[in-house]
Design a protein that fits this description.
Layout (H helix, E strand, L loop, with lengths): L2 H16 L3 H37 L2 H7 L1 H24 L5 H24 L2 H9 L12 H32 L7 H21 L1
Helix pairs in contact: 1-7, 2-5, 2-6, 2-7, 3-4, 4-8
């Protein structure tokens, strides 16, 4: 792998990771409600999901999706359903205190890991990215195990690093503006964003 080839891959991965969408909304949600720790857990599990997509692409995901377009459509609808689920869950959540709040916080780390991976696995934007862009860097003739590992690690580290930065900046912003408690209005905005993203995903099919 030449340096220019790798730098081109880095540029494409950075643009893909930094473009706003469902993944950013999920990391922000957990960073705001669960703090930097949960935001970073969501970022790490999201990176694992992206790494899974990269590996699948190297193993022929693009050809499989083109041969069976119904699989891609099912993935899109599952992603939209998950986004809608997250939005509705926020809308139906009730303020809690005492032991109930502590119990919710103890399970939020696991929820952050689950949401981070799920939104990566079910995010149609990621599927399009790997089918349309990442696959262009795959040369089946000259692909070796070492090159494949470098490509997968590049995608995983850039994606994870970006969302770890998002989680850290969100925490700094909360401290900067003395925003330490969850706001009902902010929760409603997040819920609308998730539901809006779900509708947008369905309309784009």
């Amino acid at each position: 792998m030449t340096l220019s080839f790798w730098l081109s891959l880095v540029a494409i991965c950075m643009m893909g990771a930094m473009s706003p969408g469902p993944s950013l909304a999920v990391v922000l949600k957990h960073s705001i409600h669960g703090g930097m720790k949960n935001g970073m857990l969501a970022a790490l599990s999201h990176g694992v999901g992206v790494g899974f997509y990269a590996t699948a692409s190297l193993l022929g995901l693009g050809a499989f999706m083109m041969q069976f377009p119904t699989v891609y459509q099912v993935l899109v609808y599952l992603g939209a359903a998950y986004l809608a689920y997250l939005g509705i869950k926020i809308l139906l959540a009730k303020p809690s205190d005492g032991e109930l709040q502590v119990a919710q916080q103890s399970g939020s780390a696991q929820q952050a890991l689950q949401d981070g991976f799920a939104i990566a696995f079910l995010n149609p934007k990621l599927a399009v990215f790997f089918l349309a862009l990442f696959s262009q860097f795959i040369d089946p003739v000259n692909l070796t195990f070492q090159v494949g590992m470098i490509m997968c690690l590049t995608v995983l580290l850039i994606d994870t690093g970006w969302y770890l930065l998002v989680a850290a900046l969100t925490e700094l912003s909360k401290k900067r503006f003395a925003f330490t408690k969850s706001s009902p209005w902010l929760d409603k905005i997040l819920a609308v964003v998730f539901i809006g993203l779900a509708i947008r995903v369905v309309l784009m099919v």
